[in-house]
Amino acid sequence: MGIFINNGEKFIFCFLIDSQTNLMRHLYNISWAISGTECELQKRNMTENGLGHRVLNMDTMNPNVKRVEYAVRGPIVQRAMQIEKELKEGVKKPFTEVIKANIGDAHAMGQKPITFLRQVVALCAYPDLLEDDKFPEDAKNRARRILQACGGGSIGAYSASPGIEIIRQDVAKYIEKRDGGIPSNPDNIYLSTGASDAIVTMLKLLTSGEGKNRTGVMISIPQYPLYSAALAELAAVQVSYYLDEDKCWSLDVGELRRAVKVAREHCNPRALCIINPGNPTGQVQSRQCIEDVIRFAAEEHLFLMADEVYQDNVYAEGCQFHSFKKVLFEMGPEYSSVVELASFHSTSKCFMGECGFRGGYMEVVNMDPEVKLQLTKLVSVRLCPPIPGQALLDLVVNPPQPDEPSYATFIKERTANLDILAEKAKMTEQVLNTVPGIHCNPVQGAMYTFPRLSLPEKAINAAKEKGQAPDMFYCMKLLEETGICLVPGSGFGQRDGTYHFRMTILPATEKLKVVLKKIREFHKRFTEEFS
Amino acid sequence: KPNMTENGFGHRERVLNVDTINPNVKRVEYAVRGPIVQRAMQIEKELKEGVKKPFTEVIKANIGDAHAMGQKPITFFRQVIALCVYPDLLEDDKFPEDAKNRARRILQACGGGSLGAYSASPGIEVIRQDVAKYIEKRDGGIPSNPDNIYLSTGASDAIVTMLKLLTSGEGKTRTGVMISIPQYPLYSAALAELAAVQVSYYLDEDKCWSLDVNELRRAVKAAREHCNPRALCIINPGNPTGQVQSRQCIEDVIRFAAEEHLFLMADEVYQDNVYTEGCQFHSFKKVLFEMGSEYSSVVELASFHSTSKCYMGECGFRGGYMEVINMDPEVKLQLTKLVSVRLCPSIPGQAMLDLVVNPPQPDEPSYATFIKERTANLHILSEKAKMTEQVLNTVPGIHCNPVQGAMYTFPRLTLPEKAINAAKEKEQAPDMFYCMKLLEETGICLVPGSGFGQRDGTYHFRMTILPGTEKLKIVLEKIGEFHKLFTEEFS
């Protein structure tokens, strides 16, 4: 329990129960100065054992941290976890399980690991297994190669801070192959603890200036809230640009221009972030769009950050993943020798879904050499990303080849995972679009749907009375009545007066069918209840 | 600035350059992986390419990485991890039953039964419970609440998170954080990046690097004139100094923190690395609670531990945790929110930590091998600690305090005036000048004391005691020879 302070005079008695030791009683006498902006706190604290005002409290803590929000693991997820506990304790509910469709975690929803990847990592973890003939020779060779590159032949040794050298080389080769031969320099590859780590590092480097000169960073509405959280923590300025819901969440350069022009009045826009394929929206941007964005970044002198963690998750006919690096270089040296770009990838998504390993990398293009030294220095303080994650990444970028024993199984598993996701993407779009009041854009890629909800006026008012965003009100009710945990659109950003939720397409097909059905039924009930 | 490149296109000033980059990042230094290590890596490449040198290998005695220097992993830990990574192995009868049970228990606590799923952000619940039990057992039964345990990506991650939470204010109210001279430069680096104020307190080299509360008082008093001291960090056992603080000292520090209203951060990653007779590890948590509720209900404490050191040396797994005591409940909500943005620490690292805090018990099949490996590792370190101290102290001009614990020696060097001047001409710290020369002539890579902090006019280096015993003997011999030659050359 905490202290709630409202405007006006209030005396508040707060009973604090410390879960760890004793029951403590604090008596606060709070009186407000007439100015209204200052508050004189006279605290006479009487505890059973004399606890005074803490060193680290809400007033002394880092104010930037207070401004951080991360909806993907926010209040609704905390309520979902509470409900799960209640179910375990036998509390009766209208459902028997909580379905966590809030987070892009494929394994948690039943997807199986890729066999080859786990064989190699197991061999690396316990090299005695190299004698075990249950493991195929290509897996053993990968493991030996990785271990040779580790200090003392052990994945327990620190690596160089940008990552194990041969893995950076493998990443560079992967990029070259993916991008039709456009060269990639391993020195420009930095392995990281998930893509999030590298994204935060770049934003940190970019943040400087004061007041009107403070770094502004352009990011989409809607966006994956790592960006807004990191910008809040760094006290950089978030510069929002709207994706066009009516055009399948595509990006219009006219909107980028509007946003940057407005931003220049109060900050110094230095970077433009784009997530492609998109999270939460699932759009796969066209090649034309990517060229436009690059051209815009060049004209407006912006550092481009391309979050491409869903690069294998493309489902819709006619859609294709175009890496920003590739398009940049195909646009010729007028752009490719000028535009500063950082591209991000991860082991958490695509066909492997290895979130828990925290594997990832970024490739930096046209980075100032002195800044690059600073980047290398900065990552050295945290020593290195986890070696199991680096090893896993190596297998993602250097998978079994057609002439290798493990290829058949590998390609079968990979194809199955991506096919199933594609089917679920279609099914999700179809079913949700049969619900009056729910409109779902095609899930072209990634792992989510972000449908738009028509909410009755009465519901919106009920939400406001509770001090809740209307889509949070909706999602909370859905959770309590069905056990389905989604994240309200307000956690990602949306146009004023619009409401959405983000749902993953990751529950197993049969379960997903049930989830979609329940959402449809809930929406009908909800609309009737608040009509 | 228009620059013409080879292809004739104007090469204007970059968006992200040394003027627009985060100024705090520029102020960050981390000597453990700094310039001398970069030169060592360059030399290694040259050796590979066949360049002739007065030595055949670079000996990296700069970083506390046991496996890199030949220490073998603990068998049981790697068995369980392998079982978790590839559960098909649960059918393999080459694995002992206790390893399989540990693996099943961990996997059951993972989403979808896979290490590839994200966990809750503070870490897998059952592992947090195991950590709490470990702490209770270590601290003679003093309760530990799993809700106060936050797993992290190495101890560094949790330390930075706490420093971040503590940093607020402007100008004279800017957070000041007390940290030892010498210190492990993660602290100075993090404080520079956060633009918090580093408040240095000197450890007493003449008294085996012990901590004197009067020195703490001097430091905090001086600091209050220009910042708002809010935290006190202490590394025990110490890095780079290797001292193991006495129980009396720990009580004094706790009392001081209570009096001066400071948040205590106890970096205890070397808690099993205690070598000297008469020295013992006392956890800050334990001492705090044994001092009674006048302190134990008031002093805010965060204690840190890791899988990287001790007897296991699993640096690459990036496992760690912190326990927070008496944290404001609202701040705790903020902490939980903050760690949620990065989702969770690496699951393999969490699993490794679980085995460290929940190792084989005497009644389990793997116990005999486990205890043998653990004992051997700690024993060998203890011998190397003694040998290092002995040998270095035979060298005129090198004075080495006892290596009571941790993994390093931080001997003091007497450098001739001429050498100090030569260094200044090169714009190098004298101990950097010394260490660079040592590297070029012997291939031995150490870190100059200037990277950790030291009293003005004193010079040190930090060397790990981790090379294999025979190799360490050679290293110590070569350092002795080098010091003699160096002193002669600059006399």
Automatic annotation (TrEMBL), chain A:
- Catalysed reactions, semicolon-separated: L-alanine + 2-oxoglutarate = pyruvate + L-glutamate
The record's section on SUPFAM superfamilies has: PLP-dependent transferases
This protein is called what? alanine transaminase
* Pathway terms, separated by semicolons: Amino-acid degradation; L-alanine degradation via transaminase pathway; pyruvate from L-alanine: step 1/1
Per the record's keyword annotation, is Transferase included, yes or no? Answer: yes
Subunit details = Homodimer.
Keywords for this entry? Aminotransferase, Pyridoxal phosphate, Transferase
Q: Which GO terms describe its molecular function?
A: L-alanine:2-oxoglutarate aminotransferase activity; pyridoxal phosphate binding
The EC number on file is 2.6.1.2
* Cofactor(s) listed: pyridoxal 5'-phosphate
TrEMBL record, chain B:
- List GO molecular-function terms, semicolon-separated: L-alanine:2-oxoglutarate aminotransferase activity; pyridoxal phosphate binding
Can you cite a GO biological process for this protein? L-alanine catabolic process
Which GO CC terms are listed, alphabetically?
cytoplasm
Per UniProt, the enzyme's principal EC class comes to transferase
Q: Does the keyword DNA damage apply?
A: no
Task: List the catalysed reactions.
Answer: L-alanine + 2-oxoglutarate = pyruvate + L-glutamate
Instruction: Relate the assembly described in the record.
Output: Homodimer.
Protein family membership = Belongs to the class-I pyridoxal-phosphate-dependent aminotransferase family. Alanine aminotransferase subfamily.
What's the protein here called? alanine transaminase
